[in-house]
């Protein structure tokens, strides 16, 4: 097994969840997943073995997500082509969340965030990268990461609270 094949085996599940969280649409998430691995394979000779592969891979994914014009990565709701596809998606969610309705509300609220806020929020809270790692990954100042996280949390709170009162 080559190093690249080992990385694919080790990080595919995490990358899948990351793509789903960013895109909301299963088909777009699959496209982003495939594009990320294709780019990683193409640029693998440029990967610095002394740094984290996970960080490098998620940076590629984040950049593809930010720069994509052809896919519906900014969709505001999850779109499933069948009930089975929706069930498959729900079953892919980590077991930490037991209230599916609460999760779907949170998921919808996250997907409604502007792309730059959604990306930072997902990297920080769902992929557990530090603020400094996110700053390096996105090539933005750490203060910008903090600001976007703060704004994202405020927007989420407002959207979740507004939904509860309606």
Features:
8 helices; 166 residues; mainly alpha
What does this structure look like?
This protein is mainly alpha-helical and 166 residues long. The protein has eight helices and no strands. Helix 1 packs antiparallel against helix 2 and helix 1 packs across helix 3. It is globular and about 50 Å long. About 3% of the residues have low confidence.
Question: What is the count of DSSP helices, taking H or I runs of 4+ residues?
Answer: 8
pLDDT under 50 segments (min length 5)?
73-77
Integer-rounded radius of gyration:
16 Å
- The portion of residues forming beta strands comes to under 5%
Question: How many distinct beta strands?
Answer: 0
- Main beta sheet, described? none
- Mean of the pLDDT scores? 82
Distance between the termini: 54 Å
Shape: globular
How would you summarize the topology of this molecule?
Layout (H helix, E strand, L loop, with lengths): L2 H21 L2 H17 L10 H15 L15 H9 L8 H12 L3 H12 L4 H8 L3 H24 L1
What is shown here, in short?
With 166 residues, the chain is mostly helical.
């Amino acid at each position: 097994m080559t190093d690249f094949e080992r990385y694919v085996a080790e990080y595919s599940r995490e990358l899948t969840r990351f793509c789903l969280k960013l895109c909301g649409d299963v088909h777009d998430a699959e496209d982003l997943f495939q594009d990320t691995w294709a780019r990683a394979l193409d640029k693998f000779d440029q990967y610095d073995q002394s740094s984290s592969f996970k960080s490098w891979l998620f940076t590629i994914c984040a950049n593809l997500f930010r720069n994509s014009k052809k896919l519906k990565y900014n969709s505001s709701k999850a779109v499933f082509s069948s009930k089975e596809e929706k069930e498959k998606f729900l079953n892919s969610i980590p077991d930490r969340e037991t209230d599916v309705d609460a999760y779907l509300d949170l998921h919808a609220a996250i997907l409604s965030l502007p792309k730059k806020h959604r990306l930072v929020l997902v990297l920080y809270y769902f992929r557990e990268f530090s603020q400094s790692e996110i700053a390096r990954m996105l090539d933005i100042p750490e203060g910008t990461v903090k600001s976007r996280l703060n704004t994202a949390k405020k927007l989420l709170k407002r959207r979740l609270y507004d939904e509860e009162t309606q």
